[in-house]
Design a protein that fits this description.
The structure is a single chain. With about 425 residues, this protein is an alpha+beta fold. It has four domains: about 90 residues, Rossmann fold (3-Layer(aba) Sandwich), CATH 3.40.50.20; about 70 residues, ATP-grasp fold, A domain (Dna Ligase, domain 1); about 130 residues, D-amino Acid Aminotransferase, Chain A, domain 1 (2-Layer Sandwich); about 80 residues, Glycinamide Ribonucleotide Synthetase, Chain A, domain 4 (Alpha-Beta Complex), CATH 3.90.600.10. Helices cover about 30% and strands about 25% of the residues. Strand 13 and strand 14 form a beta hairpin. The relative contact order is 0.14. The structure holds adenosine monophosphate and glycine. Glycine (GLY) binds next to loops. The site of adenosine monophosphate (AMP) has 14 residues, from strand 7 and strand 17.
Length: about 425
């Protein structure tokens, strides 16, 4: 089987690493990839959003399957375009990709199908929104409707902050057209958790649970990031909670897709708030989470190509998905300045000192001298989140200790990471 993976983050490295283990895979390409992905796949100089070039490459190489990592090409309709060339693609089509590309679309879906979520109202007029600040009290949740690299949500503590956020989103248009519509939500309290699910037309199957750490500093302090670490399984999930989520969220979501004619096939990432009145949906993403994937796929025993094919062919209910009992912890190493800015070109040392059973997934890395991240030997930083050091162990504590022991062997100038990954952080 010949597979093209689209993307260049730690998530795509984890997907590539797992696919490369399949005896069914004869060739893997990744567009554009990074220095770590280059160990398991051939990197191709095509950007993840260059839909035309991706389709042309897939057709020329006669790939059997394209696997799409990030949300932007999905929202651009890359799956529809690849399928038009008669090539199979893993990921939702453009219509379904609105579940991540428009917060208002998802809120309307959740409301229509009575799936628990925060109350909301949408605004397209700046002055009207200014009059409505504080409508649910404070903190006030404001969300740019469109895609904003995970940065489009503002939690304003008071009126001044709320008015500033309105001006930035709708006046200065800091998120571009993503902020032309703004969704205001009730503020939810509780513990956040992520649930990644494989979905086809008939079935929704949650993967093993995982926990993400979104803030930059220990103790959940500082600005939001793409994610500073993860572990799996979650320490806050119980059988009872999983059952509750299945009944109140997963089943109505699948039924909602069927009723609305949404042919969702791919990974649905459900951001949850577990509060006193039960689990509620914070958001839907329509792809694997990053860095949840690094911990979750480290525990997958089944062949990922089989699962991807079963999803594409609507055979997910027949597919056995086996998980390891081992625990996984993944610690993200980030560049100086992240998330506001990111330093590039710092030489990374110590990668060869890492234990053989520890996996260092690469995100923002490149080979020195190569603009596109593929080509020369020295590995350097090339983005905000640089590496995700992933360890497994018989117990959660063993995995956690092993991950941090290996983190300490890796160095680059300005390297920052959270020391509390793998602990339960109370807010
Ligand atoms: P989102 O991009 O919608 O997941 O939002 C990013 C982060 O903002 C979430 O992970 C939460 O920490 C926070 N957040 C989003 N919506 C709410 C809400 N309604 N209540 C409280 N926190 C929220
Ligand atoms: N870890 C959060 C995300 O992938 O959106």
């Amino acid at each position: 089987m010949k597979i093209l993976i689209v993307g260049n983050g730690g998530r795509e490295h984890a997907i590539a690493w797992k696919l490369a283990q399949s005896p069914r895979v004869e060739k893997l390409w990744c567009a554009p990839g990074n220095a770590g992905i280059a160990q398991v796949a051939e990197c191709v100089k095509i950007g993840a959003e260059d839909i035309e070039a991706l389709c042309a490459f897939a057709a020329e190489k006669e790939v059997d399957m394209a696997v799409i990592g990030p949300e932007v090409p999905l929202a651009m309709g890359v799956v529809d375009e690849i399928e038009k060339r008669g090539i199979r693609a893993f990921g939702p089509n453009k219509k379904c990709a609105q579940l991540e590309a428009s917060k208002a679309f998802t809120k309307a879906f959740l409301d229509r199908h009575q799936i628990p979520t925060a109350g909301y109202k949408e605004f397209t007029d700046k002055e009207e929104l200014k009059k409505a600040v504080g409508m649910y009290g404070y903190p006030m949740v404001l969300k740019a409707d469109g895609l904003a690299s995970g940065k489009g949500v503002v939690i304003a503590e008071n009126e001044a902050e709320a008015l500033k956020a309105v001006e930035e989103m709708m006046g200065d248009r800091v998120f571009g057209t993503a902020g032309d519509k703004v969704v205001v939500e009730e503020f939810l309290t509780g513990i956040e958790a992520s649930m990644l699910c494989f979905v086809d037309q008939h079935t929704i199957v949650p993967m093993e649970s995982a926990q993400d750490y979104k803030r930059i500093f220990d103790g959940d302090k500082g600005p939001n990031t793409g994610g500073m670490g993860s572990y799996s399984p979650s320490l806050v999930f119980t059988r009872e909670l999983e059952e509750q989520i299945r009944e109140s969220i997963l089943e109505p979501t699948l039924k909602g897709f069927q009723e609305d004619g949404l042919d969702f096939r791919g990974v649905l990432f459900i951001g949850l708030m577990i509060g006193e009145d039960g689990p509620k949906v914070i958001e839907f993403n329509n792809r694997f989470g990053d860095p949840e994937t690094q911990s979750v796929l480290a525990r997958l025993d089944s062949d990922l190509t089989d699962i991807f094919e079963a999803v594409i062919d609507n055979r997910l209910s027949d597919q056995e998905i086996r998980w390891s009992d081992r625990r996984a912890v993944s610690v993200v190493l980030a560049s100086a300045g992240y998330p506001a800015s990111s330093d590039k070109g710092r030489v990374i040392s110590g990668l060869d000192q890492v234990d053989s059973d520890v996996i260092v997934f690469h995100a923002g890395t490149a080979f020195a001298g190569a603009e596109d991240g593929c080509g020369e030997p020295a590995v350097v930083t090339n983005g905000g989140r640089v590496l995700a050091v992933t360890a497994t162990g018989a117990t959660h504590d063993e995995a956690r200790e092993k991950a941090f022991a290996n983190v300490e062997r890796i160095h680059f100038q300005g390297m920052q990471y959270r020391k509390d990954i793998g602990t339960i952080v109370k807010r």
